[in-house]
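Submission checklist for the structure archive. All mandatory fields must be present; incomplete records are returned to the submitter.

[x] Identifier: FAD-binding oxidoreductase
[x] Organism: Streptomyces bauhiniae
[x] Residue count: 346
[x] Sequence attached
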Amino acid sequence: MARSETLVLGTGFGGLTVATRLAQQGHRVRCLGNGTPGASLRNFGQLHSGAVYAPVLPDLAAACRDHRSRWLPLLGPDVARTPCVGLFDDPAAVAAYTHAWDCLRIPAQPLAPADLPALGLSQTDASAAAFLLPDMAVDVTALHAKTRRHAKEEGVLLAPEESYTLVRSGNSAVLANTANCFRLAESVVLSAGHHTPRLLDLLGIEHPLSVSHLPYAVLEGSRPGFPLTYRLDGDLLAVSPQDDGLHVALPGRSEGPRSEAAEQYRLAAALSHRWPHLPAERLAMRWGLVAEITGDRPDPAVTVVDLRDPPPGWGDADNLVVCLPGKWTTAWHAADRVAEVLSPPR
């Protein structure tokens, strides 16, 4: 096999966007996955504008603002989407968010109470203020299929889904499949989401990553005309309409699964408080998994690390780059950074 081939491990939005950018740059790219859905295909399907992060994570908010438009040509008119509303009961929170939106130039349109019923909400759902936000919930399964087709059109070879692992050969990462066939590439990009820490562990490479468990729940079979809705004060409840029902989440993550009963009660109580007419007792628990740099405060920002010249806290490898887009909205931003690391082939 020619060593000029670049391997991208991961066929979620992160892996596909990296593979596409590298192919556009002139690399011969093979993209491999293990067939399991990534976090972006299991959770909420938000195409973020940065609005919900603006006061607390302004850098992430700016990245979402700057790169979300790169998804719009792939969305097209055939991918279902729903609008987004931010609701407030606290005037102080309104002031904080509107100031942050102004600073970051994120357009948020004030809504009058009379505007809310047309969006599937009640006039009483926000006592302080409501805004139409540039976020949207999209059919991520349909978008993922279009992203795969776009990658192939750009010249990416999408290998059949199979189980694989990484092993070391000297100080290089080598791909091994279930038939013990080995593949060495000049460059390997590891963009495998929450599998990334385990694969680095298998290689014996030091890293500061941990896997967080994100609880959420689904009100199955129930799509009562809700928009994507954020309570931007108080409990910070988020509700997103998806094909399988209404997805419901509150802030919170841990390095291990917490009590499912306790999390279900927490979500059901919040949903019942906000929308008593919804059958919160029917919520079915789910768990999302995400790999992030370990720290006191979660930071779902782009992480791209060149292990040929690693920063402190990371081990080294001669041919390996780690890419974690954080939010799939910013996957193209992460792909740009990988393309900068792996300069065009000669």
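[x] Structure attached
Curator remark: The two ends are 18 Å apart (CA to CA). The first helix runs from residue 13 to 25.
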